[in-house]
Amino acid sequence: xxxxxxxxxxxxxxxxxxxxxxxxxxxxxxxxxxxxxxxxxxxxxxxxxxxxxxxxxxxxxxxxxxxxxxxxxxxxxxxxxxxxxxxxxxxxxxxxxxxxxxxxxxxxxxxxxxxxxxxxxxxxxxxxxxxxxxxxxxxxxxxxxxxxxxxxxxxxxxxxxxxxxxxxxxxxxxxxxxxxxxxxxxxxxxxxxxxxxxxxxxxxxxxxxxxxxxxxxxxxxxxxxxxxxxxxxxxxxxxxxxxxxxxxxxxxxxxxxxxxxxxxxxxxxxxxxxxxxxxxxxxxxxxxxxxxxxxxxxxxxxxxxxxxxxxxxxxxxxxxxxxxxxxxxxxxxxxxxxxxxxxxxxxxxxxxxxxxxxxxxxxxxxxxxxxxxxxxxxxxxxxxxxxxxxxxxxxxxxxxxxxxxxxxxxxxxxxxxxxxxxxxxxxxxxxxxxxxxxxxxxxxxxxxxxxxxxxxxxxxxxxxxxxxxxxxxxxxxxxxxxxxxxxxxxxxxxxxxxxxxxxxxxxxxxxxxxxxxxxxxxxxxxxxxxxxxxxxxxxxxxxxxxxxxxxxxxxxxxxxxxxxxxxxxxxxxxxxxxxxxxxxxxxxxxxxxxxxxxxxxxxxxxxxxxxxxxxxxxxxxxxxxxxxxxxxxxxxxxxxxxxxxxxxxxxxxxxxxxxxxxxxxxxxxxxxxxxxxxxxxxxxxxxxxxxx
Length: 692
What we know:
The protein is mostly helical. The chain is built from 31 helices and 4 strands. It is 57% helix and 2% strand. A hairpin with a 2-residue loop joins β3 and β4.
């Protein structure tokens, strides 16, 4: 039998010279040439690893790169080694394989790499020696790639796959067909050459394109197979890269977390942030525009993860963090600054003091905006003093006239500076629509200086079209007797001067009753409106007296309802009252049976009283019939009540409900009986016009 020349693949412990050759290529031909080789290795790693994952691969010890954080930790990789045998393209070898020195054309194997590089398996005492397989041979067929392909002229695929299929080569001992070991070695070489070469580069910046492609491949592969351990977080931390590029690569890679393995790129980002917060904080702010979902945290995105990292690692670096956030200007940076204003107001107050004297106009605008957010939470005198000084500085700059309203709001809030600036703040509020000097900001001086503040409110609301809701909402929250009585008089005067504010006045009265202790003042306001107010005012105040019996101020509401029904004949007011009665007396599904019965009885009595008065007027019967039908359709449970009342006393209700309204009530009640029980939670109720 003729002798067939056989060649042996390069032993794995000789990876050092191959890496040196690649580095030499970069030095002599430039980064572009090496980038093409590295990109080809990524393609080869993807192809060979994917092809070999269907079989159960054994494990081998692969030492990490010298100097990497966990270089002593061995990783599991596709090496195709079991008891000294190599896995071929079709499976494991059938028998023992001779050592790598047998059958080599040139004699014994050459010695290890020059210099004994410490990062290879040959020089590690902990790495187990690997026996290289002998090259396959076969009668009548040539060995694939009997000479190695020239650099740049063949891909890894061509180098690892046979050119032609012939008869299966025979093992030298005649035990059976041998397998070509090179396809099994290809994944190992592709992964190791790629990783070792990148780790040994003194500057990876020229290879950012390759690194981004590698990061994209890892993310894509991690979705189904997990992150390759050779390219885990340790690898990216060991690369020679500037901080900006490292942060961008980690941003691309964090979406691979949670897909397998113990390493986490998000934890690596936290370590990166903790190592140099001043440099890393602005770089993580650049993640705020990335809304990709994180598999490890399905409710989170890359942007929210960046927020969490910055918040968690702010200890000792809060001042640089607020500066980075205000410089970023993203809405997520604003969210985090608002959170810090509540939970770490000292850092925000110090930032406000810095920004108030910054020559950049945007920083001075930020000083006002975030100073107002931090002021309610500034508990220490030192923080309040920082805000006072910053506000006074901004107020002294004529070029910042647009910021004077916010500065005055800060100064009025502080008891130390309030007396000096309250008159100026009140005058500015009354004269201009300043979005920073609001009614709520001025209300902090109500208890100590009620005269100037109420006068400013009065002058501000005297203009037609001005919004009264904010002012009345602020006044309703003042419980001090020195403020409550003047505030109610102010609301009554406003209602007389501007009937269009009746809805806001009704909301003010409702809040005052809910707080308790204001029955006399509110009663006087509502009685005067019922006696002398136009129908639109009386209709707006009608829901106030239609509350259930367990509402705050129930006794006063009952008296006012009786007074209204004795005198009221206008159909608009009566319709508004009827709607409010039905909506506000709607029973809840969870109420006890006796409580539900009591609510139903009170509702029946009130609807009958209002309906009887409304039916007396011109067109009253038609309006009542239409309104009852509409309430049956829109208020769950009311149709069943109305039908039961009609069946109990048809003679009384026939005068109020026409045939069209009765048919609607019967249809809705029948439908509700088939689909759902009567009653609905508050959130599902149809609100009255005043509530809307």
